[in-house]
Amino acid sequence: MLCIDYGLKRCGIAVTDPLRLIATGLATVDTHRLTEFLRGYLTQESVDLFVIGLPKNLDGTDTHATEPVRHVAGRLRRAFPGLPVVFADEQYSSVEASRALAAMGLKRKQRRDKSLVDATAATLILQGYLQSIEKSGSQDEMLG
Prior knowledge:
By secondary structure, this protein is an alpha/beta fold. Helix content is 44%, strand content 20%. The protein contains five helices and five strands, in the order E-E-E-H-E-H-E-H-H-H. A five-stranded mixed beta sheet has the order 3-2-1-4-5, with helices on both faces. The longest helix has 23 residues, at 114-136. The protein is globular.
């Protein structure tokens, strides 16, 4: 399973272990190189599902960033037709990532490293997704 925290400039990438117990930050990729990065990664590693963080307002309505995420999901479906693409809640993922980095003792300058924040945000989104499918026993309701 591979998770993408999509951004207009860069995307945070996280993956799970084979047992789908733990999410780990993998990389941060310039958005215009995302498909190229994924093609290369898939030649080396097995991935059975893409998870993409979907931004929503507190009331569940779309934000200004929701449509670009839906658009990239469509691009991924066309580029990798054998891999399902699902959406996962990404509310506050970047804020939570910054908090997590602070809790780990990173200095303020290190926490301002956007690539580290993006990869950590993708990790948090993926870990949340893993917990949600564990609770529900299914990932079907999140297929987008």
